[in-house]
Amino acid sequence: MPYAKLQRELDGRAALGLLRKRQVLQGPQSPHIVIGEKPYLAFCSNDYLGLANHPQLIAALQQGAAQHGVGAGAAHLVSGHSVAHHRLEQTLAAFVGKPAALLFSTGYMANLGAVQALAGKGDTVFADKLNHASLNDAMLLSRATVKRYRHNDMAQLAQLLEQAESGRKLVITDAVFSMDGDLAPLPELLALCERHDAWLLADDAHGVGVLGAQGRGSLSYFGIASERIIYMATLGKAAGVFGAFVAAEQVVIDTLVNHAHSYVYTTATPPALASALLESLKLIVQGDALREHLRGLITQLRNGLAGLRWPLMPSDTAIQPLLIGDNHAALTLSEGLRERGIRVAAIRPPTVPQGTARLRITLSAAHSADDVTRLLEALHELAR
Ligand SMILES: *Cc1c(COP(=O)(O)O)cnc(C)c1O
After folding, report:
1. How far is the CA of 81 from the centre of ligand 1 (A)?
2. How far is CA 327 from CA 39, 44, 48, 131, 345, in A?
């Protein structure tokens, strides 16, 4: 039994209610999914605008494949950088108001590459304790000195910046925290970075497409712009496709092209995805009605769950976590919803801190008010 120890570790996780398993979807992503022949009303995707299965995106993907083929066949720096990628980068840069942008295969890889290219030995990375795992991994990979500050604690960050050694300073943060739904105070973070000559990397995976004028993201939402901000966002959530980008000053982008390993040493994504993303950006810009509908659902959910025995965490975004605390209790509640034909993911440590297991409810513009009412009724029933 060469793997007996691995099995014991998995068994240990299961006993703690921490074993993870996948669900096999029969059809496309949507609020109404089918798992093993059974239909469910789902509140667990990050497809915030309901674009993942949009007919215009499907058509653009097919058209893109007809025009550019399927595989990119090589890395961007070799011969894999197609005109579709190039046009998408220019469109993304303009969309978020930056001089240049660079496409990455995934948000995970964008964060790894950006932090590793911009900080190294002798530099310091300052990170919010509730940052996404990809930012946490990125700072370790960079080999810079790491200073973590309490969630959104600007006083502690100021102190750490004050004490920093010479070398570059890079502050990294989720713009919308992925498991909490609250926002980073980007204007205050920017002011601190200016005072201490630091750079600010903001990961807007959950803000782009949803927040700000025409869905331009968290910078637009706060009305801030600065050369110091290195903006990162993903394209597999609200944008409904796949991939990610970093938008910044040209010199930063050129540095990433030359030094970000997760950009240099990997095959370019299929160019047809870029075709689909160009279409997605059009729908995002025209998507005020979708965003308005989503805001209405958020208000409906928060009003409907006020006073329930489990508190909703403070969030105005599409991520609405219901704080349960205990791992098994969170699983039991998630299971109770499942028996009622509703899927909400139970999020447990180590994804979130010990004792803060939660149901991460995510809303999408593809949900109807009736869908939310069904969830509210089920949760009230389970609370009794
Ligand atoms: C989802 C997510 C990522 C990773 O993006 P992928 O494209 O899924 O790899 C990075 N950062 C945050 C905050 C995320 O929520």
Report:
1. 23
2. 26, 18, 26, 21, 12
- The CA-CA-CA angle for residues 206, 74, 85, to 5°, reads 45
Residues 342 and 319 in one domain: yes
Edge to edge, the sheet with strand 38-42 lists 32-35, 38-42, 342-343
Domain assignment present for residue 12? The answer is no
Distance 108 CA to ligand 1 centre (A): 6
Cα gap 38→49, rounded to integer Å: 24
Token pair for residue 201? 């990397």
Q: What is the CATH number of the domain that holds 326?
A: 3.90.1150.10
How many CA within 13 A on the CB side of residue 162?
6
Closest ligand 1 atom to Cα of 244 = 7
User: pLDDT tens, position by position, for the chain (384 residues)?
Assistant: 899 999 999 999 999 878 888 989 999 999 999 998 999 999 999 999 999 999 999 999 999 999 999 999 999 999 999 999 999 999 999 999 999 999 999 999 999 999 999 999 999 999 999 999 999 999 999 999 999 999 999 999 999 999 998 899 999 999 999 999 999 999 999 999 999 999 999 999 999 999 999 999 999 999 999 999 999 999 999 999 999 999 999 999 999 999 999 999 999 999 999 999 999 999 999 999 999 999 999 999 999 999 899 999 999 999 999 999 999 999 999 999 999 999 999 999 988 999 999 999 999 999 999 999 999 999 999 999
Counted domains in the chain: 2
Per DSSP bridges, beta strands 169-174 and 199-203 are: parallel
| Residues with C-beta less than 6 Å from any ligand 1 atom | 106-108, 111, 132, 134, 174, 178, 203, 205-206, 234, 236, 244
Question: Which atom of ligand 1 is the closest one to the Cα of 132?
Answer: 13
Same domain assignment for residues 209 and 321:
no
Task: State yes or no: is 237 an active-site residue.
Answer: yes
